[in-house]
Write a structure and sequence with these properties.
By secondary structure, the chain is α/β, with parallel strands linked by helices. The protein has 3 domains: 5-103 and 196-253, Adenylosuccinate Synthetase, subunit A, domain 1 (Adenylosuccinate Synthetase, Chain A, domain 1); 107-189, Adenylosuccinate Synthetase, subunit A, domain 2 (Orthogonal Bundle), CATH 1.10.300; 257-387, Adenylosuccinate Synthetase, subunit A, domain 3 (Adenylosuccinate Synthetase, Chain A, domain 3), CATH 3.90.170.10. The chain has 11 helices and 19 strands. The chain has helices spanning 19-26, 79-91, 111-120, 133-141, 156-170, 181-192, 198-201, 235-241, 274-283, 302-312, 356-369, and strands at 5-11, 32-35, 44-48, 51-55, 68-71, 76-77, 100-103, 107-108, 194-196, 207-211, 249-257, 260-262, 296-298, 300-301, 316-320, 330-337, 342-348, 373-377, 385-387. The strands form 5 sheets. It has a 10-stranded mixed β-sheet, sandwiched between helices. A hairpin with a 4-residue loop joins strand 16 and strand 17 (342-348). The two termini are 33 Å apart. Bound molecules: guanosine-5'-diphosphate, 6-O-phosphoryl inosine monophosphate and magnesium ion (MG). Residues 15-16, 43-44, 289 line the site of magnesium ion.
C-alpha cells in the first residue's frame, strides 16, 4: 500500500491569487512539488532573494534544493517555453534539469497550437493568454494530440508535421508556422530530462505538494463557462492529472486574495471601475504575469468563495495581498444577492496587518466560510508569512 499523502494548493478565485508564492513558502517540507494541469498560461511569481522570477511551466518548488519538480500528465507543455525558462533559471544559478521530472502523459503544445489562436480568433472574446492552451487540450481530447512519451518514436517528427498540416488545412487563409530550431532544441531538452510513468514514480514518495494553476472559477466544468481555461483547475484535476487515488488527498490549501482580480472576459459580479479600480491595480501591481495585461479588480466575493471551497473540499485558507488594502477607510465584501445585484457589507479598514480591524476581517472570513484562515501572506516574498494557530 502506498503511503502517499498529497496536499494541494488551489486558487479560489479567477487566478493570480498568489499560488506560486504560497507553494514556494510551503515547498521546503515536501520531497516533490507537482503541477497537475494548465500550461504556460500560468504565471507564478516568486522571489529568489531580491530577484523576481515568473514561472510558467516549471513548478514553484524549484528554488528549494533537493525538491523534485514534477510536471504531471494533466499539463500541456510548450517545449520552447520550457527551454527558455530552464535557461533563465540556469543564469540565476539554479540547475533545474537535475530536479525536473516530466510525466510521459503530458501533452505537447506545438507552434501550430499558438498559431490557431491567432488565425481562428476564437479566443478573442474570452481574452485567452494566446499560449495555445485551448487548441492543445482540444487535440488531446480529440485523440490526435502528441504526448511527451512519444518524442523518442522514429515517426515523431512525421507526427508533428502531420498535426501541423492538419491544422494548416483548416485555415488556408493563414500561413502555418514552420518548426523552428528552438522547438527541436526544446524537444532535445525534454529528452535529457527524467521522463516517468507518474502512477509508478509518485507513490515512491510519502508527501507531495500539488500546485494548481489558474483558479477555481476558470475551471472548464465548474467555472464561468465559456469564460474559462481548458483544464480542470479544481481538486478533481489533481486526481486525474497526477494519477493518484482520492484518498491520498490530505490538506487542501485554498488561496484567496483579500480582494478579487480577473484577466480577460467574463462575468465578475464585484468588479469596480474608474478610480477605485485604478487604485487597486496600482497598489496591488495588478498586471498579468504572463501577458502584461491590466487585471480587472473588484471586492472579495464570499458567495463565489463559498462555492469554490465547497467543490474543492478546502480544509485551510491562505489569505494573500491584504497588505495591499492597508490605508482604506472601509473594505467592502460581497455577502449575498444575485450576480447582477450583489449585496455588500462594509468592514472597517486597517492601517497595518497588526491593526485589530484586520483581525476582524480575518475572523469575518472564517465565520462566513466556516474554515480557519491558516496562514496570511503579508507580502510577495517567501518570508512575508504569518502562520496562525488553529483553534
Ligand atoms: P499566481 O498566478 O496565483 O501564482 O499569482 P501571480 O504571481 O500571478 O500574482 C500574484 C502577485 O502578487 C505577484 O506579483 C506576487 O509577487 C504578489 N504577491 C503574492 N502574495 C502577496 C502578498 O501577500 N502581498 C503582496 N503585496 N503581493 C503578493
Ligand atoms: P495563473 O496560474 C489568470 C485566463 C485568461 C482567459 C482564460 C482562458 O497565473 O493564476 P487560456 O489562455 O487559459 O485559454 O485563457 O483564462 N487565464 C488566467 N487568468 N491567471 C492565470 O494563471 C490564467 N491562465 C489563464 O486570461 O481569460
Ligand atoms: Mg498568475
Amino acid at each position: 500500500m502506498s503511503r502517499l499523502q498529497v496536499d494541494v494548493v488551489i486558487g479560489l478565485q479567477w487566478g493570480d491569487e498568489g499560488k506560486g508564492k504560497v507553494v514556494d513558502a510551503l515547498a521546503g517540507d515536501y520531497p516533490v512539488v507537482a503541477r497537475f494541469q494548465g500550461g504556460p498560461n500560468a504565471g507564478h511569481t516568486l522571489y529568489l532573494n531580491e530577484q523576481k522570477v515568473v514561472l510558467h511551466q516549471v513548478p514553484a518548488g524549484i528554488f528549494h534544493e533537493g525538491v523534485y519538480c514534477l510536471i504531471g500528465d494533466g499539463v500541456v507543455l510548450d517545449p520552447e517555453v520550457l527551454l527558455k525558462e530552464v535557461e533563465g533559471l540556469r543564469q540565476l544559478g539554479i540547475s533545474a534539469e537535475e530536479r525536473l521530472v516530466i510525466g510521459k502523459g503530458v501533452h505537447l503544445i506545438l507552434p501550430v497550437h499558438r498559431w490557431i489562436e491567432e488565425v481562428s480568433r476564437e479566443g478573442e472574446k474570452i481574452g485567452t493568454t494566446r499560449r495555445g492552451i485551448g487548441p492543445a487540450y482540444a487535440d488531446r481530447y480529440a485523440r490526435r494530440g502528441l504526448p511527451v512519451g512519444w518524442i523518442d518514436r522514429a515517426d515523431f517528427p512525421a507526427l508533428v508535421q502531420e498535426l501541423t498540416a492538419y491544422h494548416a488545412a483548416r485555415f488556408p487563409e493563414g500561413e502555418a508556422p514552420s518548426l523552428s530550431e528552438r522547438f527541436w532544441e526544446g524537444i532535445e531538452l525534454l529528452r535529457r530530462l527524467q521522463q516517468v510513468q507518474v502512477s509508478e514514480w509518485l507513490p515512491r514518495f510519502n508527501r507531495v505538494l500539488a500546485e494548481g494553476s489558474q483558479g477555481t472559477m476558470l475551471d472548464i466544468f465548474a467555472g464561468t463557462y465559456p469564460y474559462v481555461t481548458s483544464s480542470h483547475t479544481t481538486v478533481a484535476g489533481v486526481i486525474s492529472g497526477l494519477s493518484i487515488p482520492p484518498q491520498s488527498i490530505r490538506e487542501v490549501y485554498g488561496v484567496l486574495k483579500a480582494y478579487t482580480t480577473r484577466v480577460g472576459g467574463g462575468p465578475f459580479p464585484t468588479e469596480v471601475f474608474g478610480a477605485e479600480a485604478q487604485w487597486l491595480q496600482d497598489r496591488g501591481n495588478e498586471r498579468g504575469s504572463t501577458t502584461g495585461r491590466l487585471r480587472r479588480c473588484g471586492w472579495l466575493d464570499i458567495v463565489a468563495l463559498r462555492y469554490a471551497i465547497q467543490i474543492n473540499g478546502v480544509t485551510r485558507l491562505t489569505l494573500t495581498k491584504a497588505d495591499v488594502l492597508c490605508g482604506l477607510p472601509t473594505v467592502k465584501v460581497r455577502i449575498g444577492g444575485t450576480d447582477d445585484h450583489p449585496h455588500y457589507i462594509s468592514l472597517p479598514g486597517w492601517k497595518s496587518l497588526a491593526d485589530p480591524a484586520f483581525e476582524e476581517f480575518v475572523r469575518f472570513i472564517e465565520q462566513e466560510t466556516n474554515l480557519p484562515v491558516w496562514s496570511i501572506s503579508t507580502g510577495p516574498t517567501r518570508t512575508d508569512w504569518q502562520q496562525r494557530a488553529l483553534a
